[in-house]
Amino acid sequence: MTGRATRRLVLLLAALGVAACEALQPAERATIDAWLGCIECDAHELDSVLALAGRKRNATVTALQDGLLEGPSPGQRQNLERQLDSSYQILVAYRGPNGAVVSQAEFVRRYRDNIIGTYRVRSAVALAHIGGPDVKPALDSAAADELRIAGDSLRPVDLDAVRFARDSIWQ
Amino acid sequence: MSAESKRYTEHSRTDGLGWPPAWLSGRALTASLCLVSACTCSSSTTSSVQTDDNDRVAIQGGANPSVLAVDGRGRTKCLASELFEGTGIIDLNDRIESPTGCSTEIVAFSSDRAVELKAAPKWTHDPSNPVTLAVKPPVEVELRFYVPQGVPGVATEAQDEMDEATALYAMNRAGIAFKSLSTVAYSPAQAVLIGNGCGGGNAAGLAKAGASLYDPGVINVYYVSQINWSNYLFGYNCYLESIVVGGSNAIGENIIFLSLASRPPTTLAHELGHALGLRGKVGHTYGVPGFTNRNLMMSGISFNAQALQDHFSLGQGYRMSLDRLSWLNHARPSGAAPIRAGDNRPCQLTVAAATGDFCPPLALDQ
């Protein structure tokens, strides 16, 4: 092996090593998920995300950009809808055959939109707290309601929140 | 009516007796003697064997099966929160001895009745005279909803979420039902007073806002556009905030905020859990041994791991109904009597059963 080839191999291995170190481990991904799904968020969930970004900035920013521009994955959305279907069935069973209940589609839509919207807004909030020039393009895109999935859009209330986050970026 | 009872778990506290050990008592002793002498015998009676001493509990008033959590003197140790299930007369087999040296109580949980505590039951050891436990309808807790004027459907959504909460509490034998007798549609001017969260004196301000925006005798639930402007929380209970009601100091446990734009359908059930005493170390269950992602007090679950949140443990149900910290069991800030009559318990704020704690482990369940 020539000296040049050796140097290339060393550089390649170093790059792979850096990428592997930078990738989020499951526990680190769970740190982000805890923020995106917390109820009262009083256990320093956002602080933990910011601390993670201090250690693995690129991977954390990428995950949050994905969260903002794509929302939960298709599989996660299916799981969410199954849960909401079950919640609806609990309500229907409680009300009984004569109890008036909103349609299942409306019930699921109501809460699915809340959860997905909050997932995206909290991604935006975390990006704004992380700050820096690399977080701005995703926030600008979302603030213009330009998302990655065709036909996808933010609710007005979420759009306002994303714009507020974008305008609050820590420089 | 008699039913086969079923023992699920045994949580025991040693009581210092130490003798005879469990393996050398009752049927175990009989079996051992039989093996040694190669005799033929039944497990029914010998002079050294104690048979079923007829400890039974007659549940009066409940149609659905009940789970009993029983504390008392066992053969060799104190029994704590031993679980039995049945309908009508529930046979505890030969578990309970004379109640000396061990605290004894019976708690009944069922899906259509209140959680009922019988403190210091008098065990009769007489099958014709079981300990009786009358179970009453679920304790009704009144909520008052505050919804923004001009936003259609929120009052209906609040009703849905309250009924969802009642159904979930019943499913888990928590013995509590929620009702709402009034909903207030608040104006934009009142929205300013309601604010967007507990902190910064907001809860204290609400408590002083007058009858149109706060009722000290009920749990007040405010549907607002968002909570804590920049954090987009699902909901919040203000139990950490000090308030003053009628000149008396209190806490804001009966003030709940729910986010119109963020909450899932079970957030109200979760925040009501805080009002009912699930707070601090016994509040959220993330990372607490014995709880799964289905628990309603779990927060911050990964979207990959999320499951339908529909579960309270019996230990949580015990605290919500019987702990003095619960909204049910202490006088209202206005001085009115507690909602629930009868015995209650001063539970400690620890997940596991602690020395001297009357209350079972938080994760106690079937």
Can you tell me about this structure?
- The complex is a heterodimer of chains A (171) and B (366).
- With 171 residues, chain A is mainly α.
- Chain A has eight helices and no strands.
- The longest helix of chain A is centred in the last third of the chain and has 27 residues, at 104-130.
- Chain A is elongated.
- Chain B is built from seven helices and 15 strands.
- In chain B, the strands form three sheets. In chain B, strands 2, 3, 5, 6, 8 and 9 form a six-stranded antiparallel beta sheet that branches. Chain B has a five-stranded mixed beta sheet with strand order 12-11-13-15-14. Chain B has a four-stranded mixed beta sheet with strand order 1-7-4-10, with no helix packed on it.
- In chain B, a hairpin with a 2-residue loop joins strand 14 (235-245) and strand 15 (248-259).
- Classes of the chains: A mainly alpha (171), B alpha/beta (366).
- The interface between A and B is large, with 50 and 42 residues.
CATH superfamily of the largest domain in chain B: Collagenase (Catalytic Domain)
Number of domains as seen in the coordinates of chain B: 2
Number of helical segments of chain A?
8
Looking at the structure, what is the overall shape of chain B? elongated
Low-pLDDT parts of chain A are none
CA radius of gyration of chain B: 24 Å
Encode the helix/strand succession of chain A as letters.
HHHHHHHH
Short description:
Chain A is an all-alpha fold and 171 residues long. Chain A is built from eight helices and no strands.
Topology:
The complex is a heterodimer of chains A (171) and B (366).
Chain A: H1 3-22, H2 26-37, H3 45-55, H4 57-70, H5 74-95, H6 104-130, H7 136-143, H8 156-166
Chain B: E1 2-3, E2 6-7, E3 11-13, H1 26-37, E4 56-60, E5 66-73, E6 78-86, E7 89-91, E8 105-110, E9 113-119, E10 131-134, E11 139-148, H2 154-171, E12 176-186, H3 188-194, H4 202-207, E13 219-224, H5 228-231, E14 235-245, E15 248-259, H6 267-275, H7 314-322
Parallel strand pairs in B: 1-7, 4-10, 11-12, 11-13, 13-15
Antiparallel strand pairs in B: 2-6, 3-6, 4-7, 5-6, 5-8, 8-9, 14-15
Helix pairs in contact in B: 2-6
